[in-house]
Amino acid sequence: xxxxxxxxxxxxxxxxxxxxxxxxxxxxxxxxxxxxxxxxxxxxxxxxxxxxxxxxxxxxxxxxxxxxxxxxxxxxxxxxxxxxxxxxxxxxxxxxxxxxxxxxxxxxxxxxxxxxxxxxxxxxxxxxxxxxxxxxxxxxxxxxxxxxxxxxxxxxxxxxxxxxxxxxxxxxxxxxxxxxxxxxxxxxxxxxxxxxxxxxxxxxxxxxxxx
Length: 211
Description:
Elements: H1 44-57, E1 61-65, H2 71-77, E2 86-91, H3 95-102, H4 106-112, H5 117-131, E3 135-141, E4 156-163, E5 166-173, H6 178-197
Parallel strand pairs: 1-2, 1-3
Antiparallel strand pairs: 3-4, 4-5
């Protein structure tokens, strides 16, 4: 399914969201065993591909994290030479930090909550402005074991990506323990970024990351 594209400067993504967009492929409830290195098992090959594309296109990357608590940034810095493209990140675990540092609107949190597509988009766009990076990733969700509700169960995670051509968001439904959910969220958003960066992909005028 093609993801929606919007301007990264938009301040009101909540006004256009009528539904969420799931991943085109299911996310496994259990991650594969560790591949020998890295804080997120299975991530090194994905990170290598991401790093190669970001370096060749001279693009910078930053991350905004809530439920992953810094795990996404940690995974990125597991890759030797990631300082060539990775500028840094913000762990905005508490809502006031989301507002103060990332520019998430209080009305977004009041109307939709921190675990929402709207919040994820504002986190990604805010991080992109804050660090002045080309590409920003954001994660917000319910890692458990508590905190879930019928509307927002444990394992619900929203991932957002903001780039020069706009932004997009995906809804993840993950299973497993707290640590497994967090790792699966990180691996999923990294794989999404890898696909966006693949040569020959997303070449339309409204591409998130134009070739």
